[in-house]
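Researcher: I need the complex structure. Ligand is glutathione. Inputs:
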Amino acid sequence: MWAAIYPLREVPTMKLYFAPDTCSLSPHIVLQELGMPYELVRVNNRTKRTSTGEDFLAVNPKGYVAALELDTGEVLTEGPAIVQYLADLMPEVGLAPAAGTLARVRLQEWLNFITSEIHSGSSPLFNRALPEDVQAIFRDRLFRRLDFIEVNLTSRDYLVGDGFTVADAYLFTVLGWMKGFSIDIGRWPATTHYMQRIGARASVQAALAREAETSPAA
Ligand SMILES: N[C@@H](CCC(=O)N[C@@H](CS)C(=O)NCC(=O)O)C(=O)O
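Model: Output:
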């Protein structure tokens, strides 16, 4: 009777638009951490079409992953917003401190740092058209940001509090790109251990495996 009056919150089935080796891995790890059902749709970032033949620009006019379609049909974009939305669906899992607390603002401080200083900060290194001396300027700047991360990870296992949060899912994702820029993360020992520790999580392994088995988009 009580269930009829107060039904348990229904777990929505969401659709995550992703591309392999990109920032969409971060919300994907979070979905795995939460143990929620979800559908994965692979996006071809070159053609802007999905593996199901959809025009991705109709889903996210900004044309980039990640995008999360809710069961209402609404689409959420911007990684830091998506992961916080997901964490708040199941606060008991503890992937983000409660909204309105200083700890939550600390989490947002990290998410903003990762998105602007590491994610966007490393974008020029993807640009093969940039001359080496210009790339060196961006690389140097990025190294100073990585030094800052190293100092923080020397005294703690996770970015915020005592446990894994959505900030760790995002940092793990963007630091995973460094090898592709010929940046040896071994130069930062605490960060190297952190990457090994986070990379060994079941959620990370499961997200990577699911992405690998998804067929390429057209
Ligand atoms: N501000 C966005 C940036 C997302 C982004 O950079 N996505 C990349 C992959 S990591 C992408 O899909 N790029 C394709 C494009 O811009 O055409 C966020 O934080 O979610």
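Model: Summary of the prediction. The chain has two domains: 14-93+204-213, 102-201.
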